[in-house]
């Protein structure tokens, strides 16, 4: 009886945790770099293919990178500058980022200049195109947006949204990353950090 109760509790917990966040799967040609202001740590050995996000609207910073064979033994890497997309995550839906992959390196270079991506759910065959914003476009629009945000904040009180959980599968924990960087720091840097943290 205890085993059955324990098993049913574990299953209920699993379903309750999975209902809090939805999943976005990224193809190997796209690297998620950032969600809002939060940077996603990844490397060649711990690549982030999936993000779990609570329902809501997010700005994602992505980078396109693809490998094309030129001849039998040579290849060319085609990369885009990082760019931003706005995504809206609905409860109970899992998403896949999709795009039309170029057939050769020349077409891929054209694509990299203005990447076009869409979000697709498993239950809907139609993908929703996402508007892409380059870093330079975002930087030029930022002063106007900040001024507008400041003006509206004077008119009404700010509503602070709770931070949604981000979980990149295969991503190192914050404690592991802190430990790694602590080991890289000089004794003077470690002392300065401790003084800053204990203020």
What key attributes describe this structure?
disordered N terminus; 5 helices; six-stranded mixed β-sheet; 199 residues; globular
Short description:
With about 200 residues, the protein is of the alpha+beta class.
User: Pairing-aware structural class of the strands and helices?
Assistant: alpha+beta
Order of helical and strand elements:
HEEEEEEEEHEEEHEHH
> What is the residue-mean pLDDT, rounded to a whole number?
76
N-to-C CA distance: 53 Å
Gyration radius, rounded: 21 Å
- Helix percentage range: 25-40%
Compute the number of strand runs.
12
Strand proportion: 25-35%
- Shape estimate: globular
* Major sheet summary line: 6 strands, mixed
Strand order of the largest sheet: 10-9-8-1-4-12
Total number of helices: 5
Uncertain residue ranges: 3-19, 150-165
Q: How would you explain this protein's 3D organization?
A:
The protein has 199 residues and is α+β, with helices and mostly antiparallel strands. Helix content is 35%, strand content 30%. The chain is built from 5 helices and 12 strands. The strands form 2 sheets. It has a 6-stranded mixed sheet, with no helix packed on it. Strands 2, 3, 5, 6, 7 and 11 form a 6-stranded antiparallel sheet that branches. It is globular.
Topology readout:
Elements: H1 2-18, E1 22-25, E2 30-35, E3 38-39, E4 50-53, E5 56-69, E6 75-79, E7 83-89, E8 95-98, H2 105-113, E9 117-121, E10 128-130, E11 132-134, H3 135-155, E12 167-168, H4 174-184, H5 187-197
Parallel strand pairs: 1-8
Antiparallel strand pairs: 1-4, 2-3, 2-5, 4-12, 5-6, 5-7, 7-11, 8-9, 9-10
